[in-house]
Specification:
heterodimer; A: 107 residues; 0% strand; globular; B: 277 residues; alpha/beta; Rossmann fold; eight-stranded mixed β-sheet; PP-bd_ACP (chain A); ACP-like_sf (chain A); Phosphopantetheine-binding protein (chain A)
Chain lengths: 107, 277
């Protein structure tokens, strides 16, 4: 019964599942005050959630704990231009996580 | 999120091992680079999304941490003299079990912390890179006393934050509000200028020193003095650039730091004696 959830064929890289999980991680982020925040695909990290960059560091650590080293937010953000970081949405981050997971599933 | 005890505080630290962010790791023991952020509006996040991954990918063990009072490290009400910051770094390296002499890179006040550490813990310091910083001499303390008194006077007013928001945008206003919180709830503004200093002749700085400045920043006026007083000091002045070198020229800063650490790591790892000098 319980072994089923840990089999590698579990479709973890499902977009809506990942989006929901990221929303939960954000609401639980310490010191960010997002307990009751409405979070969807189009939610902006910067303008809507008013996250500080140090909160993104925390989120990066939580994503690694959740999905392993294959999801590396620092590398993703390092490749973005400043205006892309300011316009970063929760949906775009979810897409990145899904792409990272699929890339390793296929390899 | 890694938090480790450093004396009476808990310090937030993020490490990226050599190669953890991809790239190739050369043979032999990698250099360790410690990145020290600036005062009030800053945190390790300034490095986490820029310099940190690049150093790791270049085969360097990278340590980023939040200074006391900043980011996710504890914020005690008192104890913000330079020697407190330097002691925190020493305890952090102990806590991480780090025995190698470290390459320190500091931005603004972080560079002053790095220079203080090099002066008081020379055996633990490989090199120091100061980005838009002053070493902890009397003139620095004077500049800090003035700047911090100014910030504390102005940032407590809501209309000042509103003015910052109109002129520089919501993000800068948010950072300013955070800075005002530190100034209101701690003795940082009095403590920083009142701490331990080094002599004006900079004789306490015996490790290789690299200083990077923006040409439009007043701090670049230190170049002749640094070069005259610190043997083998290297300086770079980036033209048409103000104080925010790290934020506004991340790629250039990354290349400068990478080259500097690579060169000095190779030298420490054992160049034939005849080749030195």
């Amino acid at each position: 019964m319980t072994t089923e959830a840990t089999t590698p064929t579990t479709p973890v890289a499902d977009e809506s599942t990942v989006l929901a999980r990221i929303a939960t991680l954000l609401r639980e982020l310490p010191d960010a005050g997002l307990e009751d925040a409405e979070i969807g695909r189009d939610t902006l990290f910067h303008d809507d959630l008013e996250l500080e960059s140090i909160d993104l560091v925390s989120l990066s650590g939580l994503l690694r704990e959740e999905y392993g080293e294959r999801v590396n937010l620092a590398l993703f953000v390092a490749d973005l231009e400043l205006d892309e970081i300011i316009e970063l949405t929760v949906g775009r981050l979810a897409d990145f996580v899904v792409a990272s997971l699929r890339a390793t599933e296929e390899s | 999120m890694a938090k480790i005890p450093t004396g009476s505080l808990t310090t937030h630290v993020q490490r990226l091992a050599a190669g953890a962010a991809g790239g190739t790791v050369p043979d032999g023991e990698p250099p360790v680079v410690v990145l020290v952020h600036g005062l009030l509006t800053d945190s390790l996040a300034s490095y986490y999304f820029t310099l940190g991954p690049a150093l790791s990918a270049a085969g360097m063990d990278t340590v980023m941490y939040d200074l006391r009072g900043h980011g996710r490290t504890d914020r005690p009400p008192t104890g913000y003299r330079l020697e407190n910051f330097v002691e925190d770094l020493s305890l952090l390296l102990d806590g991480l079990g780090e025995r190698r002499p470290v390459h320190l890179v500091g931005n603004s006040f972080g560079g002053t912390v790095a220079a203080g550490f090099a002066a008081w813990h020379p055996e633990r310091t490989a090199t120091v890179t100061m980005i838009e910083s002053e070493p902890p001499v009397a003139a620095w303390a004077g500049h800090m006393a003035e700047g911090l008194a100014h910030a504390r006077r102005d940032l407590v007013h809501d209309h000042a934050i509103e003015w910052i928001k109109e002129r520089y945008g919501a993000h800068t206003a948010r950072l300013s509000r955070g800075a005002a919180r530190i100034l209101r709830t701690t003795t940082l503004a009095e403590d920083v200028p009142a701490g331990r200093l080094i002599d004006d002749d900079l004789s306490a700085l015996r490790c290789p020193l690299f200083a990077v400045f923006g040409g439009d920043s007043g701090l670049s006026a230190q170049v002749p003095d640094l070069e005259a007083k610190v043997a083998g000091c290297r300086t770079v002045v980036l033209p048409d650039q103000g104080h925010s070198v790290l934020v506004e020229q991340p790629a250039r800063t990354r290349d400068l730091v990478l080259d500097w650490v690579r060169e000095h790591h190779a030298r420490r790892a054992g160049t034939p004696a005849g080749a030195v000098g």
